[in-house]
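Comment thread on ticket #2218

A.B. wrote:
> Attaching the input chain for the structure job we discussed in standup.
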Amino acid sequence: MQATPRIGLFPRVAFVTALLTLGLIVFGAVVRVTDSGLGCGEHWPLCNGTIFPPLDNTIAWIEWLHRLFAAVIGLFGLGMLALAIRAYRQQNRRVLNMTIVAAVLFTLQSALGALVVVWSLPPTMVTLHLGTAMLLLGALLISGVFATYRPRIHYGVDRVTTLVYLTTALSLVIILTGALVRGSGSSFACSDWPLCNGEVLPLNQGRWALIHMLHRYSVLALGISLLILVYYVYRDRQDGRLRTVAVCALIGYFSQAAIGAFYVLRPGEALWGAAHVGMAATTWALLVALSGMEWLSNQSSVQEAAKSSAAWNPQSSPTP
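C.D. wrote:
> Ran it. Output below, let me know if you need it in another format.
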């Protein structure tokens, strides 16, 4: 009788933790656009050798609060893990397994955050740090989806399934290329939009412009893939929940693309850069949730087929 409340509580904790992680990602973007990454110097976990930064050091406080935010998420993650062990270790083990994956990713994310500071913000490490944060966000969401989503219609893997997975992977690629743009100092290598200083492909403008345009073309590819995905989801999927998540992902995409263009055209508006990362992370999160829902529908189809096969072939069952 005690298992039911815990199972009911876990999804709420999982989704709240995922939402907090999304907020942490946006806060991390604020740290980057305000150049606060070394606000506490090359010290971790202390801030310039002290527990609390000076009250008049705004940059240090931004970095310090980012670390505090991460610690709070760690506490929520521990609560998630405890709930998952108690409620899911004997049933629906996939929830527990994904929660363990999230715990490992959080540990890795924390270690990478420390290394990024100690090693003075190398671009590749900053990109890896952000990529791990996105994987953590995805793992938390999948845990919640596995705990709550029950497919209404069962179907096998088809082209929609493949398109969902490919689009989700592409959304992560544009986030990583965006981090590389920021980390390499290429954010304003192209002063106009959608062209790059008047050119479609800036082959003669140096590698910074090429890195910037690689990100833009990745964003364009994601937009095309999302439009195709929404079309096929509406055509081939009858579950309104899948359709809603797909459309929300498309809205998130257009929002982050528009904010990205505005950020280039108005380089003085630094916080728009953080909003750009936030909407990109939201798009990724929605696509991850859609992937989890699609995967569960596929698995349900396999299980239904196995049950049907067993019912029609009683000789295949072992005799007592």
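A.B. wrote:
> Thanks. Noting for the ticket: Residues 1-148 form one domain.
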